[in-house]
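FIELD: query
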Amino acid sequence: MAYSRDTSPEAERVQIELLRRMTPARKLRLLSELNDLGRQLAMAGLRQRHPGATREELEREYVSLTLGPELAAEVLAARKAARGSPREVSEHP
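FIELD: result
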């Protein structure tokens, strides 16, 4: 059964075999890299739509788009509270 409309069955078979051979650590690194790329692309789109926005404004917009307005409000409030509270001092440099 083909999963991709734009990939030949043979190429897809090779891709699946390569994925099966990857270690879990490599799969997690790959997933992390793809998540980073998705975030970078989303932020680039937000910068294009809001050219005068500050980094903080773009971050708020990104959080709202990815989490939805209600959860985003909670997350942003928690971030703000965490920034306002004194940080613990580590005994180790």
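FIELD: remark
The CA atoms of residues 50 and 57 lie 9 Å apart.
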